Q: What sequence folds into this?
């Protein structure tokens, strides 16, 4: 029987392949973020000094929205086409399979925006000194977003959408990520020290990594009953 | 694991929805070479029972044993020897049949390198690399059945395996069933059709 | 009546892929020769003989690429959209082939305009990028092109892809003038202290004449490459047709 | 046979009922919208004068992102469960049915965002004089977003996911709406006259109302084949 | 609209995928009281042909006439007199069968106030107000069939109407078919099963 690594690898491969098929080009997500960035000056005006102050927050918010709303459907499709049943009935540990889904999701949404963020920040006139903190923070933060989003997605599959309180359970977890993430960039851009904020961000991500796969797996076992 | 113990045995199964029992006191089992058909009207609970048997749903009462061991504990062992096929085929429409068999092979024990032949047996040789979204309903079902050929599972649990399958396909499925039973496997399935196989046992669910 | 019947027949023959392929085969050498000659003339004239600019020195010479590319980027979108409309309404397959050939070409020209413009920006503005009205609207145009290309690529069936792209291109056409107008309006509203694109006063004739040559050369060049692209598209789509096989055999023997 | 009004009403009713059944999912973007706006001061600093300048643009960008990402499901679900085939094969004019879907989408996403916007703008220290223009503009603008989003949704309906392709098709079309919308608020907040910008915004929305249902209907007829 | 003209008539139909014909030269038609079964192996093109007949797909060549009038022009008239049911039932899972019939009633001509009886005939009286997500596969199919009873359509085009339906259900569908034919309607359907109805005509698609 295949080892647990095999299940993880197979699922990761599958999701990346699907993402590749669907987007046609890997370039599409990049164009998407570039385009939204281009809309920001149209909305707030083209002055570089103003854009620079806004840049960290905007890039972070875009990253958050991009990951979050995609995460709502993280398990929905697998549920509808029956593939979720295979995940739950696999002899492999379910949390590991959930982790594979999350990592794939992060590679497809979080990583491209992290890699692209220096360019976007430059278009928004963010001072160069803020870039390392932006990239490091987004790398960690988008992973945390994907992990937390998986819990939300699993709950959606499980409990249906009728409960308005449910998003309120998951959303507050995003807030600390956003706060520390933007704080790190803003400080670094102002020439200050960002290591503290990044360390806290890392701690949150580590915690999410520990808790989310198990929480999501438990929700999924409940959820396949519909 | 006494050799005499049946593969799967279930006793006194009861499943409730909203505190109303859907079925009660269901008992039965399969030994090597056995085939059991669950029958009953629409809504009788066939799909639900099959999902209880796979452990996807937990019964309100009753017990399940795999090779003589009680099930919640022997679950991992059971799942490695089980191949399940539900109403929905569980294939990703964006991937080809071959790619689908490949990712499923990471999750379940699968014989190596046989994807080619399995798809050919089910008449999908020309479609092995087309996205599943381009397959017709019956071809999609055939692709899902191909997984059974690849798996070395002892027990197959199948929910309406004949849905959307044409007449030649039904004969083919009967042949596959026979080969599986002859090699010491067992099958539990639901269907509204009658199979031309000897020795099918029935479990009738009342609506 | 008879004459118009003959006209329609001719048009029909013309708009059939093999008809167009044969006919355009005769134009290609002429177009190639004319556009290459004019390009060479304009480039040599503009880069070597035109006088340097009083304020910008030699860096202004990038205008000989930048302005023609900008013109054709916009014109190219309309070529694409009109082809799309013809395909959608009359179901002329050739129009779809023309459309799928026009999209990457237009996107490339738009990119060239953006790229040459931002190269020019460095010596004149001191930065590669500012959020200027014209630059922004050019960027939006690039996104419109990329959208059409991505949509075509996303469909498995060519037939469906062609009609979907035509719908998108037409919606884009309605929007282009609005986008341009609104971006201009946005720019005049915010009035930042950056340099205006049209700051250059009317050009000296010695600078202007080579520019005119370059513009004409770019139009011819565009037509040439568009026809080449279309011919390649025709061959790839009709590769199973008898006339293409005959053509291939002729080539082999 | 039922008149065209009946088809419109039946579809609108159906979608509102479905949204009500899933109110948790519908509320999700909205709660987000509010939470993120509350976070903006954290990202860019709490100076009221700066916030007031950013407020119109930020609220508009949030509204845009909220509607855009929700538009993904505009036709997708109907496609997967076969209901889209019923819409296309109805004797009712398809553009009218499309319009019903769009209006339902707008009522569920655009209208709540519009109603919530004064609160958010107040949090961002937007002067009270800008509020009427903000509400009026968002009301019109989110309708235009939904209309244009429908064209993108119809074009990508059979393509699976479509998450990234659709925004690429639609965002360029959003540009004029964004420009006039933010301009109206910015002017009104500065004590100026916003009627001109709002009139232009209204004209664009009217144009979208004229063009989009037909374009989306044509796209659906094409796109239903995959 | 001559009374002698068949309801639906099609000639020389050809459908292409990526420039390769899936079927060619298909001809046929139905008059009042006629029932036509499309048969063929999995992937032969039954679903595609039925979708061409409903005008959801356009053929590469060939013509369709409704009551003697060529189809792209008589389309609205045709659609008011057509009831179609595809592979996917087209019901919203978040709504109950009754609510689903209601919104469909806004889109298609439907007799008034009969939803109750239609659902009862199909054995769903107790489930009229449960969300469709809670129905079993066969019950969902039955709910989709209920629409046929409500519509006054002259022509039914059905893609595998018997899928997931139990044996009593098949008998029920046969009875519904007979009633529709007796009242002057016509039916075109695809199925891998044989119906116990007199006078079924066949159109066999070669794979
Ligand atoms: C990325 C940057 C740039 C873009 C996207 C861009 C775009 C355009 C476009 C679209 C046109 C054609 C205008 C029309 O058809 O009316 C144009 C013309 C022109 N551009 Fe640029 N441009 C850029 C940078 C620059 C720079 C840095 C300069 C010089 C300071 C410049 C100078 C001109 C001039 C002189 C013309 C022709 C004059 C006219 O027709 O108004 N551009 N540009
Ligand atoms: N969207 C599509 N793109 C490309 N090919 C397709 C598509 N849909 C169907 N096909 C192909 O067209 C052929 C006919 O499919 P169709 O669904 O009509 O078959 P069918 O006769 O209904 O089969 P079944 O009995 O399995 O339902 C198949 O070979 C299928 O692979
Ligand atoms: N998620 C659910 N929530 C509530 N009730 C459900 C749910 N799923 C199924 N049921 C109910 O349980 C009963 C049994 O359903 P099940 O799917 O097991 O029937 P079945 O025998 O497989 O029918 P079919 O022949 O139609 O496939 C039905 O009455 C159904 O309405
Ligand atoms: Mg069932
Ligand atoms: Mg079919």
A:
């Amino acid at each position: 029987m295949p080892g647990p690594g095999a299940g993880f690898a197979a699922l990761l491969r599958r999701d990346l392949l699907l993402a590749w098929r669907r987007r046609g080009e890997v370039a599409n997500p990049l164009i998407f973020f570039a385009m939204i960035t281009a809309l920001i000056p149209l909305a707030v005006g083209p002055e570089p000094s103003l854009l620079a102050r806004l840049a960290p927050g905007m890039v972070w918010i875009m990253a958050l929205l991009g990951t979050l709303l995609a995460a709502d459907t993280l398990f929905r499709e697998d549920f509808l086409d029956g593939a979720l049943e295979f995940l739950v009935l696999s002899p492999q540990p379910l949390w590991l399979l959930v982790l594979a889904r999350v990592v794939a999701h992060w590679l497809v949404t979080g990583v491209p925006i992290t890699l692209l963020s220096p360019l976007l920040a430059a278009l928004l006139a963010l001072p160069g000194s803020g870039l390392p903190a932006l990239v490091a923070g987004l790398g960690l933060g988008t992973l945390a977003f994907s992990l937390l989003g998986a819990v939300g997605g699993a709950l959606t599959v499980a409990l249906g959408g009728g409960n308005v309180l449910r998003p309120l359970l998951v959303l507050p977890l995003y807030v600390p990520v956003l706060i520390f993430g933007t704080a790190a960039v803003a400080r670094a851009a102002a020439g200050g020290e960002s290591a503290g904020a990044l360390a806290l961000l890392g701690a949150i991500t580590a915690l999410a990594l520990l808790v989310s796969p198990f929480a999501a797996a438990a929700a999924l076992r409940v959820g396949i009953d519909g | 694991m006494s050799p005499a113990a049946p593969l799967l045995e279930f006793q006194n199964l009861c499943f409730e929805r909203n505190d109303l029992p859907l079925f009660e006191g269901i008992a039965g089992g399969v030994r090597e070479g056995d085939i059991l058909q669950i029958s009953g009207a629409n809504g009788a609970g066939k799909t639900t029972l099959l999902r209880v048997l796979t452990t996807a749903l937990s019964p309100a009462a009753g017990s399940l044993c795999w090779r003589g061991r009680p099930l919640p504990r022997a679950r991992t062992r059971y799942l490695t020897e089980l191949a399940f096929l539900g109403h929905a085929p569980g294939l990703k429409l964006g991937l080809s049949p071959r790619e689908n068999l490949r990712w499923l092979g990471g999750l379940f024990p699968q014989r190596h390198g046989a994807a080619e032949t399995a798809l050919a047996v089910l008449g999908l040789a020309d479609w092995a690399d087309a996205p599943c979204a381009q397959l017709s309903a019956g071809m999609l079902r055939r692709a899902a059945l191909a997984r059974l050929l690849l798996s070395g599972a002892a027990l197959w649990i199948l929910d309406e395996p004949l849905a959307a399958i044409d007449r030649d396909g039904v004969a083919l499925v009967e042949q596959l069933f026979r080969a599986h039973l002859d090699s010491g496997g067992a099958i539990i399935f639901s269907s509204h059709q009658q199979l031309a196989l000897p020795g099918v046992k029935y479990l009738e669910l009342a609506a | 009546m008879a004459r118009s019947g003959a006209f329609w027949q001719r048009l029909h023959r013309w708009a059939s892929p093999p008809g167009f392929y044969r006919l355009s085969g005769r134009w290609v050498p002429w177009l190639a020769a004319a556009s290459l000659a004019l390009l060479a003339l304009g480039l040599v004239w503009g880069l070597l003989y035109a006088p340097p600019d009083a304020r910008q020195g030699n860096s202004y010479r990038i205008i000989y690429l930048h302005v023609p590319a900008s013109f054709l980027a916009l014109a190219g979108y309309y070529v694409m959209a009109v082809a799309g409309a013809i395909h959608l309404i009359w179901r002329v397959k050739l129009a779809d082939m023309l459309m799928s050939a026009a999209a990457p070409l237009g996107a490339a020209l738009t990119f060239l305009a953006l790229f040459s413009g931002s190269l020019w920006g460095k010596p004149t503005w001191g930065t590669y990028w500012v959020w200027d009205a014209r630059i922004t609207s050019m960027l939006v145009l690039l996104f419109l092109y990329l959208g059409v290309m991505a949509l075509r690529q996303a469909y498995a069936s060519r037939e469906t892809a062609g009609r979907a792209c035509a719908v998108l291109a037409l919606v884009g056409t309605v929007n282009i003038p609005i986008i341009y107008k609104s971006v201009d309006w946005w720019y005049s509203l915010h009035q930042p202290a950056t340099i205006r694109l049209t700051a250059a006063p009317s050009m000296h004739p010695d600078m202007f004449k080579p520019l005119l040559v370059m513009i004409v050369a770019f139009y011819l060049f565009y037509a040439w490459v568009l026809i080449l692209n279309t011919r390649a598209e025709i061959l790839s789509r009709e590769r199973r047709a008898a006339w293409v096989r005959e053509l291939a055999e002729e080539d082999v023997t």
Q: What stands out?
A: Chain D has one domain: 4-225. The pocket of magnesium ion (ligand 4) is lined by residues B 46-47, 159; E 136-137 (CB under 6 Å). The CA atoms of residues 82 and 200 of chain D lie 39 Å apart. Chain D touches chain A through 50 residues (CB under 8 Å).
